Inverse folding.
């Protein structure tokens, strides 16, 4: 059971995504930190639009986590949220995806024999796993499909690239650009992480005009409207 002191940081890439999340709350107000500005809600959620890509996502999330810890009111959960590309036909446009694995899909080295993740070069990590109980609660509350969400620095624009990603990550449902950065910052602070995405476009040949951003943002608002009450009964110590 979370306590009334539960504090949740939600990191999005762009203000339009942050504002879609904010529409699920009552009366957020702005709080300025050195290096970041948050929308703070009455329900104990801070909403941050940190920028596009894993680097600004990690920097902004770490800034907010550090500020909260120094303030003596650390976050109990960090959520990476926004729109995403969905692998077809598993994650149709308009559907929701919750990450049971957050994987940096292009962090590594290209070799004559194919892609090598940094872990095979002897460095760091390429995956974070949100607690199973958290994924389960999110699925039950919102109907989001659980699967791997890939973090990429380059949006996939060809069928060949989509197939190559799926061959390396058969469990992948979606790709976005921030989850791994958010998860790295959360892990550095020992705080659990969740990633929830609304699918705005198929992963594959680039057709920006076909992105259904409005529908995806509406799905994100609806998802948070259901997720926030559900998280009140989530026990952060339940790692089943
Ligand atoms: O133009 C707009 O109105 C607008 C409103 C909200 C969001 C955007 C974005 O462009 C967000 C970029 C953000 O979305 C993720 N994303 C979405 N589709 C993909 C994809 O196919 N591959 C990778 N990332 C995707 C990503 O996290 C970006 O940061 C625009």
């Amino acid at each position: 059971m979370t306590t009334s002191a539960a504090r949740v940081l939600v990191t999005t890439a762009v203000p339009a995504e942050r504002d879609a999340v904010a529409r699920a709350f009552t009366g957020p107000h702005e709080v300025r930190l050195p290096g970041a500005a948050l929308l703070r809600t009455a329900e104990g959620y801070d909403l941050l639009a940190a920028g596009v890509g894993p680097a600004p996502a990690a920097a902004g999330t770490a800034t907010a986590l550090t500020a909260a810890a120094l303030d003596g009111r650390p976050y109990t959960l960090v959520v990476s949220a926004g729109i995403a590309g969905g692998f077809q036909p598993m994650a149709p446009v308009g559907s929701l995806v919750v990450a049971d694995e957050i994987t940096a899909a292009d962090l590594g080295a290209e070799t004559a024999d194919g892609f090598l993740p940094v872990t095979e070069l002897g460095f760091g990590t390429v995956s974070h796993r949100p607690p199973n109980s958290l994924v389960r609660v999110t699925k039950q509350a919102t109907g989001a499909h659980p699967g791997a969400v890939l973090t990429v620095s380059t949006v996939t624009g060809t069928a060949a690239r989509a197939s190559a990603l799926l061959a390396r990550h058969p469990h992948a449902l979606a790709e976005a650009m921030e989850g791994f950065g958010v998860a790295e910052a959360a892990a550095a602070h020992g705080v659990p992480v969740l990633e929830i995405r609304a699918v705005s476009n198929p992963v594959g040949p680039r057709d920006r005009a076909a992105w259904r951003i409005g529908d995806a943002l509406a799905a994100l608002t609806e998802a948070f409207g259901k997720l926030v009450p559900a998280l009140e009964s989530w026990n952060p110590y339940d790692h089943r």
User: Anything to note?
Assistant: Helices lie at 15-22, 54-70, 132-142, 159-168, 179-188, 213-231. DSSP finds six helices and twelve strands in the chain. The pocket of LNDFFVEH is lined by residues 13-14, 16-17, 52, 82-85, 152, 155-156, 175-178, 200-201, 203, 213 (CB under 6 Å). The longest strand covers residues 77-86.
